[in-house]
Amino acid sequence: MPRRSQASLSVLRPRVDGRATRLSPPPDLDEPERLRFLEVVRACAPDHFRQSDTPLLVEYVRTAILCERAAAAMRADGGPVMNGGKVSPWFGVSQRAARTLMVLSARLRLNPQSRSHPRSIARQQYRAPSAYDEEIDDA
Fold first, then answer.
1. Distance between CA atoms of 98 and 59, rounded to whole angstroms?
2. What is the pLDDT confidence band of residue 126, given thresholds at 50, 70 and 90?
3. Less crowded by CB within 10 Å, the N or C end of the chain?
4. Whether residue 29 has pLDDT greater than 60
5. How far, in Å, CA of 97 to CA of 66, rounded?
6. Is residue 120 part of a domain?
7. CA–CA dist 96, 92 (Å, integer)
8. Is residue 66, in this structure, part of any structural domain at all?
9. How many domains is the chain partitioned into structurally?
10. What is the mean pLDDT of residues 3-32?
């Protein structure tokens, strides 16, 4: 029997026990991006992401790290307005990255609004027991 290549072994295959497999990070991510990718994937249910979500998830991770870098640079400069009264160039980067992060989180169903459906929210709300229910419990 011939040996199988590394590429053929790295193809995502269903588990024997039927459970969903989690996405693995692409090889082109650097270490902070890879760690954030794994953090996001592990924070969700195993069947939350599909293989086709990988490009969006990679952009989400890169954008999240860019937001953190922009915030750190602004903190180092003394805030969004620098000493000379000029606005930090990182401020615009931060604003655009935050907007992109919101859109990507909605598309990947990572934020609370996109995870919930209007019909299921109504079912999850607490309803006080009616007088009829209390009468049945007392009997």
1. 12
2. low
3. N
4. yes
5. 7
6. yes
7. 6
8. yes
9. 1
10. 72
